[in-house]
Design brief:
The complex is a heterotrimer of chains A (about 500), B (about 425) and C (about 450). Chain A has about 500 residues and is α/β, with parallel strands linked by helices. Chain A contains 16 helices and 18 strands. Chain C is of the alpha/beta class and about 450 residues long.
Chain lengths: ~500, ~425, ~450
């Protein structure tokens, strides 16, 4: 795997340099061709080779992949915390990590003094890597008239269970730059429309092509039960409708599997089971992701989900501070949303929020710390928080509310990898694992800490200051005004 | 000759049946404005209370009603309804509320009051002899979809009579105004669906102040009109809208201001100070710090339903129940109205629950009788059993604020009135089904 | 407020299941009134009712002098504590949905209802469709989770709706008054169609039932057959046919009430309760003959045309014709004072005190099939009790204490006491939010509540 320069460096400038060099070399050859044939022939060969490569590989520089980050603070997560150690990367994998490593001669050395190396962060649930869907495709009121009324679960409304996020992953997604700037190298990526949202993929956040980014798939089925369609638009419209629909789907799945098995054993005299790609999608789902934000929703899901007879994880969990014991007992994977509830910007001053709302805002960030203290494993997910600055701020909030840095790192790395069954190949710094790392100057989440490098599948990135400080939506054009607002302190 | 005398007496008898003179005796009289009179009687002559005492017989021609030891109370008053203007809420054609337009002072509820509305006998059967009927249901553009501010004039109507003209005890009693409100973003769950973007608080506030100044401008127009009218200036043209506001600016007609929240009450008080108009605060859901302000200016209040839910999740569970007592303790004069049609007959029960939660019982009774009369300017006519007042009376077998009590008889302006209604007729009819 | 109230509930319910209520007027409802009476509660059950009962040593005594004790109030028609929508109104038959799935034990209206003496609610799906969702009976155990609120052993139900509401979406789009793109009409648009929906659904249910019977027979014989699809919509209808699920039918007009009774007769099941049933007085004979209960409003009328013939005499008249009648609320607000509603049947129809009280206690208990454990103050029943400061049928009364299964869930005195503390705690949170480290305008917090 060739080493690629960071996209943040002006690519075109680099490319034109290559061609300039090539022409210069060609020119040089022409002048000197009568001086030494042998020398020029070999140079000619390398010229042809370079040209061929350039033509064949289309704009890629083949830089050696061996890198050593030397004498840095390495937080391996799966192993010991190494205050002064070296990690070796080669060919996109971690070749070795340890305090007394011999650095290969061909390795590019990065001086790790003052640097902390963590496994690259994993977003537990997001749409990172997926192109933003055009608004029209989402189904607005304008399209409601053309859609026939849904009669019930048998019409499979809003069901995209068979769609695969992996098929749509693209390195061109504009959110990736900000994601990497926040130290993320991977994401459990899911399409985000409908009730049954499809099969997600565990992806690394860079690549030449989308398919190179896929680490594992399918990793699960995301299910949403928020009211989208609205009154009068069709089934389901109430929460109980959503839940009964989900329940029915899994009953149908059960029957479908039995019917298929029976039919396969001996089709004679039996009606063939009708192909149902929505059920195929569910069948393929190794686990379900179910939403639960408020306390009674958490309690409800823990009663409801086991009926579906699939492993499941809960996402949301802001009011989980009321249910720590229950969650400990339940022992299911948990995804905590980083979109902490905030006071609305434009509140009527005489409209005093309820105690419950205030308590939620005050205590939601303490959920990770409480879970960690109770020994309950959890991961984080972005929940629409896409800018590096906001992600950092959200994580910092959890730390300020009682989460230790070590537990935060765990929740961002090995835990989500474990949740999705890829802990054997990523999620920590260990020999043979994928080279997904984030190298920070300082300790993670401290205000002054910056992200120096991010390695995704061994590809090196150097996130710019702007991308680390940018506000949401400023991924492409960071503006100084927003940066100032940041410096000013609280924005909400 | 004897035949002639007989005929004359018969005529008298007929006359007596329709007459508005009666002696009600053998009752416990509850004047409301004074102490209870045991074994008492009330003499009504030509529709007016002539005497409260212990008379046992009357002169010829006056019917005698034996109260059989029951109770006589003043007929009760519901101080805020839409009775007569709306029959079935879900059928738009049967509803005459909330006319289109921002300022409609010239509209009068009494002329659209349907004397044949089934609600009239139904409400009457609960011991209510008069209601204030208003031109709006307070939903602020819920029907007409516009921002109505001054919706028209409300009237105090007797619940008996052949025509609205006969029934109007005090036509044009008040000028109804829906005080502007700031709709907090997110309170209207249908706004988002209807496609309206949620407005920011700043926008709402700006709109609110714009509306307030618009109202002030309108009052200024009225004053200018008055000046021109009084001066009989050349080219003066009569304008019905501005004409209708003259009572407001000279203080003879109070503005019936619907102001639910403390901020709105505060601003309504400031408004009345500034514009020098009399106001009544209608349907406040909270008092906050406004008690002393209201008392200082003698601004009365018409309270809405006591049997209601608290506005906010964290409010004490009995917040609406204790609100009347709060006003009472602050020395503010108030009466009860239901602000609807369907449950207008239940205003006595609203008063009773207020008494369960801190309001003295006598005050609860006053708040559905004499207070209502006084607040609407007819305190010398109705609201209590006092000499000289119109004989609006009810005969009961107990406390009329209690559901267990039966209303046994009713007199409106001295005339005995039937307590039958659609409801009693259906009951009687279907009771007989074999 | 909720946190404090939950703490209160927790404290109240600790070891509080054995106690004596002494010297109150006991309104048993079924066994007369006992002046200066007492009720002994042991382990959450009523152990003794009478005069001169002494408390076991150490058991707390509640002094009820001058006060009135009645059974916990029961509401046959509630939509409280439902999360995410009361109606799955998108389809004409939404029997696949279940209220049990969406109970919200954190709804503050539960507490407010308790404060009004309510102890048991029949939580129903709304009336947007001819056949609505499955329903459940709960006890208002404020502070417990959803599972713990479910009334153990109470038969589940299903909601039907007749009349205007279930046909409203069948009108041309403007009927709704919604702006925007036109909505496709949903069948039915007439009362005739409403009957059709019910008949069709039960016809399907019978076919489904037969399919499963056939499947069971075949597999019992050892045949390998593919099972029919388990259909969540038809399952509850089969349960209705088998008498395992009660039908609670919202209805107004006499003709539709009669229609439903005849459909049920044809299909071979019983209507358990008719809800609202405002014209029930016209067909009381038929209702009584069928054996359906009637759960109605005390005095609602005229808000729509089908309610125009409603009279407050409905409850009394149906009672006189032999129907089992209860009064319900269908409202977060009304459920707080069902005792006051009950009083109205004394005025409108001349029912007695005990008949009035029965309307909100033993009658709804019988309708819901839970009268062996609640609905009256009798030995052996659950200690679901309410202590009032005045006679509960008086408009001047209010509940002071409420127990469910002998656990105290409401105490007015404690509620009043807790308010100052709660206000303080809330202020702490408000202050914390109102003072950012540095406001964007650099000054003091201009936002933040004024209170």
């Amino acid at each position: 795997m060739a080493l690629r320069y960071s996209l943040e460096i002006d690519f075109r400038r680099w490319l034109s340099n290559c061609f300039v060099n090539w022409f210069a070399l060609a020119g040089h050859c022409r002048k000197k061709i009568f001086r030494s044939c042998d020398r020029y022939v070999s140079r000619l060969k390398s010229l042809i080779w370079t040209t061929g490569l350039l033509a064949g590989l289309a704009l890629r520089a083949e830089v050696p992949s061996a890198i050593a980050i030397k004498d840095a603070h390495i937080v391996t997560v799966s192993g010991e915390d190494l205050p002064k150690a070296t990690v070796l990367l080669r060919g996109g994998l971690i070749e070795d990590v340890g305090a007394q490593l011999t650095i290969p001669a061909d390795a590019w050395v990065i001086d790790g003094a003052g640097l902390t190396v963590y496994p690259g962060f994993v977003n537990g649930l997001s749409n990172w890597g997926l192109p933003v869907a055009p608004v029209a495709a989402r189904g607005t009121a304008a399209t409601a008239t053309t859609e026939p009324r849904v009669h019930g679960p048998e019409d499979r409304p809003q069901n995209y269970s068979y769609e695969r996020a992996a098929d749509s992953v693209t390195p061109a997604d504009t959110k990736l730059e900000a994601a990497r700037a926040a130290g993320f190298t991977s994401s459990a990526t899911f399409l985000d429309r409908g009730i049954f949202r499809g099969l997600g993929a565990f992806i690394d956040l860079a690549g030449e092509k989308g398919r190179e980014m896929i680490v594992a798939e399918p990793i699960g089925q995301e299910i949403s039960v928020t009211r989208g369609a609205g009154f009068g638009r069709g089934f389901p419209s109430a929460l109980m409708g959503y839940l009964s629909y989900v329940r029915q789907m899994f009953l149908d799945l059960n029957q479908y599997q039995e019917a298929k098995a029976l039919y396969a054993a001996n089709p004679v005299g039996l009606h063939r089971p009708e192909y149902d790609h929505t059920l195929e999608g569910l069948e393929e789902s190794p686990r379900l992701l179910l939403p639960a934000v408020e306390s009674q929703q958490i309690e409800r899901m823990l009663v409801f989900a086991p009926e579906l007879k699939k492993p499941f994880a809960l996402y949301g969990l802001h009011e989980a501070f009321k249910d720590i014991d229950l969650l400990k007992q339940a022992n299911v994977p948990l995804l905590v949303s980083l979109k902490w509830p905030e006071k609305p910007r434009d509140a009527d001053p005489t409209d005093v929020p309820s105690y419950r709302e205030l308590e939620l805002r005050a205590q939601a960030p303490s959920v990770p710390g409480l879970l960690a203290k109770a020994g309950v494993k959890f991961a984080f997910y972005s929940d629409g928080v896409d800018s590096a600055a906001d992600l950092k701020k959200a994580l910092k909030k959890a730390l300020d509310s009682g989460l230790t840095r070590a537990d935060a790192i765990r929740a961002l790395t090995l835990t989500p990898a474990e949740m999705y069954g890829v802990a054997d190949r990523t999620g920590s710094i260990a020999k043979g694992k994928i080279a997904n790392l984030v190298v920070m100057k300082g300790e993670a989440f401290d205000d002054k800490t910056t992200v120096e490098y991010v390695f995704v599948d061994g590809m090196q990135f150097k996130p710019s200051k702007e991308s680390q400080q940018a506000a949401p939506g400023a991924g492409r054009r960071p503006s100084l005004d927003i940066a100032e607002e940041e410096i000013d302190g609280d924005r909400l | 000759m004897r035949k002639l005398v007989g005929l004359v007496f018969c005529a008298f008898g007929l006359f007596a049946a329709e007459s508005n003179s009666v002696l009600i005796r053998n009752v416990t009289v509850h004047p409301v404005t004074g102490p209870v009179v045991e074994n008492g009687s009330v003499l009504v002559v030509d529709g007016k209370i002539e005497e409260v005492g212990h008379r046992t017989s009357a002169r010829a021609g006056v019917r005698v009603v034996d109260g059989k030891g029951m109770h006589l109370y003043p007929g009760m008053i519901n101080a805020a309804t839409n009775v007569g203007l709306a029959e079935i809420e879900a059928i738009r054609d049967s509803v005459d509320l909330d006319e289109i337009g921002e300022f409609n002072p010239q509209l009068r509820a009494e002329i659209a009051f349907n004397p044949s509305s089934e609600h009239i006998p139904v409400v009457r059967a609960a011991g209510i002899t008069s209601v204030i009927t208003l031109p709006s249901d307070g939903s602020r553009g819920g029907r007409s979809g516009t921002g109505s501010v001054i919706t028209g004039q409300g009237a105090l109507m007797h619940l008996d009579g052949w025509t609205w003209e006969e029934m109007a005890v005090r036509p044009m009693a008040v000028m109804e105004m829906l005080f502007p409100e700031i709709r907090a973003a997110g309170r209207n769950p249908f706004a988002a669906q209807a496609g309206a973007g949620a407005r920011t608080f700043q926008e709402e506030e700006r709109q609110y102040h714009a509306e307030l100044s618009h109202i002030s401008d309108f009052l200024e127009d009225v004053r200018r009109y008055k000046k021109a009218k009084d001066a009989k200036g050349p080219g003066f043209e009569r304008d019905l809208k501005l004409e209708a506001m003259l009572g407001v600016i000279d203080g003879t007609q109070p503005l019936f201001v619907r102001a639910e929240r403390e901020r709105m009450i505060k601003d309504a008080i400031a408004f009345s100070d500034k514009e020098k108009v009399k106001i009544i605060i209608a349907d406040p859901r909270e008092m906050g710090a406004m008690g002393p302000e209201l008392k200082k200016r003698d601004i009365p209040v018409v309270l809405g339903k006591v049997l209601a839910l608290p506005e906010h999740e964290d409010d004490p569970y009995d917040e609406p129940y204790t609100l009347p007592a709060e006003f009472y303790k602050a020395g503010v004069k108030f009466c009860f109205g239901t602000f609807d049609v369907e449950f207008a007959r239940n205003v006595p029960f609203e008063a009773a629950q207020a008494a369960a939660f801190g309001l003295p019982k006598e005050e609860a009774l006053k708040a559905v009788t004499i207070n209502s009369a006084e607040i609407f300017g007819v305190g010398s006519q109705i609201g209590s059993i006092d000499k000289g007042k119109t004989a609006d009376l009810i005969l009961t077998d107990g406390d009329p604020l209690e559901a267990r009590t039966n209303i046994k008889g009713m007199f409106i302006a001295g005339k005995e009135v039937s307590l039958e209604s659609r409801h009693t007729r259906e009951y009687e009819k279907w009771l007989k089904r074999p | 407020m909720r946190k404090i109230l939950l703490l209160l509930a927790a404290v109240c319910s600790l070891n509080a299941q054995t106690f004596l209520i002494r010297n109150a007027t006991i309104l048993t409802v079924t066994k007369g009134t006992i002046e200066n009476g007492s009720v002994l509660v042991e382990n959450g059950k009523i152990a003794a009712v009478g005069k001169n009962i002494s408390a076991p040593t150490g058991a707390p005594v509640v002094d009820g002098t001058g006060q009135f004790l009645m059974p916990g109030i029961i509401d046959c028609h509630s939509h409280t504590a439902i999360e995410g929508g009361v109606n799955e109104g998108s389809v004409s038959d939404s029997s696949m949905v279940n209220i049990k799935d969406v109970l919200n034990p954190t709804d503050i209206n539960i507490y407010r209802a308790l404060a009004g003496g309510l102890t048991v609610s029949n939580v129903l799906h709304g009336s947007a469709n001819a056949i609505g969702g499955q329903t459940i009976v709960v006890k208002l155990r404020w502070g417990k989770n959803a599972q713990q609120m479910i009334f153990e052993g109470a038969k589940p139900g299903i909601k039907f709706a007749l009349g205007e509401n279930p046909k409203r979406q069948g009108y041309p789009p403007q009927g709704f008054g919604l702006t925007g793109p036109t909505l496709e009409r949903r069948y039915p648009g007439t009362r005739m169609g409403v009957e059709d929906v019910i008949r069709e659904s039960f016809n399907e249910a019978k076919i489904y039932q037969a399919q499963w019977e056939e499947y069971r027979t075949k597999t019992a014989r050892g045949e390998k057959v593919i099972a029919p699809r388990k259909d969540l919509r038809l399952e509850p209808l089969v349960e209705v046919l088998n008498g395992q699920r009660y039908v609670h039918a919202h209805c107004y007009r006499a003709d539709e009430i009669l229609m439903l009774l005849r459909v049920a007769d044809d299909m071979g099941f019983k209507i358990r309760t008719l809800q609202h049933v405002l014209e029930g007085y016209k067909v009381a004979k038929e209702i009584a003959a069928h054996g359906a209960g009637a759960s109605t409003f005390s005095d609602w009328w005229s808000y729509k045309i089908e309610a125009y013939d409603a009279t407050p005499y409905n409850a009394a008249l149906m009672t006189k014709k032999g129907v089992l009648v209860s009064l319900n609320s269908d409202s977060d607000e009304l459920q707080r004072h069902l005792n006051l509603e009950a009083a109205k049947v004394m005025r409108y129809g001349g029912l007695s005190q005990d008949e009035a009280l029965a309307m909100v206690t033993i009658n709804p208990a019988k309708q819901l099939g839970i009268d062996n454990s609640v609905g009256s103050i009798e030995v052996g029943k659950s200690a679901d009790l309410v202590l009032f400061d005045q006679h509960p049928l008086s408009g001047y009364s209010k509940p002071l204490k409420v127990w469910i299964d002998g656990n105290q869930y409401f105490d007015r005195a404690k509620d009043l006491e807790a308010r100052a503390d709660f206000a303080k705690k809330k202020k702490v949170l408000l202050d914390k939010e109102a003072t950012p480290a540095r406001g964007p305008r650099g000054g003091a917090a201009t936002e933040g509540p004024s209170q």
